[in-house]
């Protein structure tokens, strides 16, 4: 009975060791999951900030495009006035 008891103890020890290894791996998995969840949340916040930034930049581009168009129209108007002025001076000669 002595040897049977020792063999049984060894099997129980191996089972406990396997259980501890499993428990440790599950703990590592849970920690990794929590870390990834935190990282995901952080990236989600960064994405939201970048989307706001993109919207602001798009508005700025639209505003600058409108300003450029306004400037182009003013320059064209000035050039037309110069052309008319030059044409009218040519007629006076």
Topology:
Elements: H1 2-92
Detailed description of the structure:
With 93 residues, this protein is mostly helical. It has one helix at residues 2-92. The longest helix is centred in the middle third of the chain and has 91 residues, at 2-92. It is rod-shaped, with a radius of gyration of 40 Å.
Give a quick summary of the entry.
This protein is mainly α.
What is the count of DSSP helices, taking H or I runs of 4+ residues? 1
Number of strands: 0
Q: State the order of secondary-structure elements, H for helix, E for strand.
A: H
What is the alpha-carbon Rg in Å? 40 Å
Uncertain segments are: none
* Average pLDDT, all residues: 90
What class do helices, strands and sheet pairing give? mainly alpha
| Percentage of residues in helical conformation | over 70%
Principal-axis shape equals: rod-shaped
Largest sheet: none
Termini separation = 135 Å
As a percent range, the share of strand residues is: under 5%
